[in-house]
Design goal:
Blueprint lengths: L10 E4 L2 E9 L2 H9 L1 H4 L15 E6 L14 H4 L3 E11 L3 E7 L5 E11 L2 E9 L4 H22 L10 H15 L1
Antiparallel strand pairs: 1-2, 2-7, 3-4, 4-5, 5-6, 6-7
C-alpha cells in the first residue's frame, strides 16, 4: 500500500481540478460522520445542516473559532466571530463512500467537491477532489484552504485540537501559487 503523506500537497489532475489524499484513523463510518454530521463537521470545516440525498441542500456555517483559537487575519475576522454561511447542493451520495456537492465561488462561479472514502485496514483513505475551478488563482486559494482544513480533520480524528490554522493559509497559498504556475 502506498501511504499518502499526512501533510502532502494537493495535485492538479486537470486544468481546473485539485485533488488531495489523506490516510485517516477509521473506521469508515467515523470519517463519514465527520463529513456529514454538523456537530462533527464543525470541528474541522463548517457546521450546518445537510439533506443527505441527491438534490438536497447543504447550508454550511464556517465559524473557525469552533476548531482553532488562533486569531483570524482581518480579511477573515468574521469567520472566527459570527461565521460565514454558504449554500451548497448535494449532487450525488453513496453512504459511507462518496459525497459530491456544489461549492460556491467568486462571481457566482460554482465548482464541485467530491469526497471519497476507501477502507485501508484500520484506516480510511480520504480523497477530496475539487473541480471546475475558475482559474489558477482560485485553485491556489481553494487548495490552501483544503490543505489546512484536512490538517485539522486529521488532528481531530487523532484526538487533538488544531494549534495552527490561519497562520498556515498564507504560506500554503504562496506555495500553491508557485506549484500551479509550473503546471
Amino acid at each position: 500500500m502506498n501511504v499518502p503523506d499526512p501533510d502532502a500537497y494537493g495535485v492538479t489532475t486537470a486544468t481546473d481540478t485539485v485533488c488531495f489524499e489523506r490516510l485517516l484513523p477509521g473506521p469508515i463510518e467515523r470519517v463519514w460522520a465527520y463529513l456529514t454530521e454538523p456537530e462533527k463537521r464543525k470541528q474541522w470545516l463548517a457546521g450546518g445542516e445537510m439533506e443527505l440525498k441527491a438534490g438536497g441542500e447543504a447550508n454550511l456555517l464556517f465559524k473557525h473559532s469552533e476548531f482553532t483559537d488562533e486569531p483570524a487575519p482581518e480579511q477573515y475576522a468574521e469567520m472566527n466571530t459570527k461565521g460565514f454561511s454558504s449554500q451548497h447542493r448535494i449532487l450525488d451520495i453513496d453512504p459511507p463512500r462518496m459525497l459530491a456537492m456544489t461549492w460556491p465561488g467568486e462571481d457566482a462561479h460554482e465548482s464541485e467537491v467530491v469526497f471519497e472514502l476507501f477502507p485501508e485496514g484500520e484506516k480510511v483513505l480520504l480523497v477530496v477532489t475539487h473541480k471546475r475551478l475558475a482559474d489558477r488563482g482560485e485553485m491556489a486559494n481553494v487548495a490552501s484552504g483544503w490543505h489546512a482544513h484536512l490538517g485539522v480533520l486529521a488532528t481531530v480524528l487523532e484526538g487533538g485540537r488544531a494549534k495552527r490554522f490561519w497562520s498556515r493559509i498564507p504560506e500554503l497559498e504562496a506555495d500553491y501559487q508557485k506549484r500551479f504556475a509550473q503546471d
